[in-house]
């Protein structure tokens, strides 16, 4: 669920402007999963543009407090959301921790890095939601460490049905700055894509794991 329409449209436009989101229906990308995709999202680019990263941290901070109240701790999901998570925590004057994909194999074997007390209220910051699996593993790690996870915020979501189901099953409240539907609407309005390319992008979202480009 997006925070609101205005934020979704503005965020989508900024991501397109800096090529954090690339739309290329004619020459699809290949994801690490092996899926063919007409879209590629790299929100790490946000950190290289001060005005845009400030916009993102301020929108996150405002909406986090509105939706969840001020938490005790901000948690970032490694590695993509560590940078933006730190910015949000700094802006809100809160402690920060981050969550590894799995526990370290040496030392203290931490999965949650940083100081976290049992019972503290935590909001998790993520950069991108696809299926939601890795994001929800981070939530589980925080709960196992004793955190009270209030919810998760992310910059962008593809809006896959499987992600919606996964978050529903896990009973995790997810809010995003932007989503796929608002991105496509804006991309057509701003002439980033044609109406024909819009059809291709909509078809892909219906079945991303099996989608193939057709001539």
TrEMBL record:
Family annotation (HAMAP family): PyrE
Q: Which co-factors does it depend on?
A: Mg(2+)
The protein depicted here goes by the name: Orotate phosphoribosyltransferase
Span of domain Phosphoribosyltransferase: 50-153
Organism equals: Flavobacterium paronense
Which Gene3D superfamilies does the entry link to?
3.40.50.2020
**What parts of the sequence cross the membrane?**
73-99
Q: What does this protein do?
A: Catalyzes the transfer of a ribosyl phosphate group from 5-phosphoribose 1-diphosphate to orotate, leading to the formation of orotidine monophosphate (OMP).
Q: Which GO terms describe its molecular function?
A: orotate phosphoribosyltransferase activity
List of residues binding 5-phospho-alpha-D-ribose 1-diphosphate: 100, 104, 106, 126-134
Q: Which annotated residues bind orotate?
A: 130
Cite the annotated pathway.
Pyrimidine metabolism; UMP biosynthesis via de novo pathway; UMP from orotate: step 1/2
Q: Which gene encodes it?
A: pyrE
Query: What keywords are assigned to this protein?
Result: Glycosyltransferase, Magnesium, Membrane, Pyrimidine biosynthesis, Transferase, Transmembrane, Transmembrane helix
């Amino acid at each position: 669920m997006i925070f609101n329409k205005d934020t979704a449209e503005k965020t989508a436009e900024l991501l397109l402007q800096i090529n954090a989101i690339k739309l290329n229906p004619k020459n699809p990308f290949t994801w690490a999963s092996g899926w063919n995709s007409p879209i590629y999202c790299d929100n790490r680019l946000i950190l290289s543009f001060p005005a845009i990263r400030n916009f993102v941290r301020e929108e996150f901070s405002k909406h986090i407090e509105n939706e969840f109240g001020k938490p005790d701790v901000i948690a970032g999901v490694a590695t993509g959301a560590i940078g933006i998570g730190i910015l949000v925590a700094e802006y809100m004057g809160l402690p920060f921790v981050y969550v590894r994909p799995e526990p370290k194999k040496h030392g203290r074997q931490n999965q949650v890095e940083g100081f976290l007390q049992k019972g503290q209220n935590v909001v998790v910051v993520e950069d991108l939601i696809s299926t939601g699996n890795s994001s929800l593993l981070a939530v589980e790690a925080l709960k196992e460490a004793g955190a009270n996870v209030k919810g998760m915020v992310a910059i962008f979501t593809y809006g896959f049905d499987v992600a919606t189901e996964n978050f529903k099953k896990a009973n995790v409240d997810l809010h995003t700055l932007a989503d796929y539907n608002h991105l496509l609407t804006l991309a057509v309005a701003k002439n980033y894509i044609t109406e024909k390319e819009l059809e291709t992008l909509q078809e892909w979202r219906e079945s991303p794991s099996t989608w193939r480009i057709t001539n």
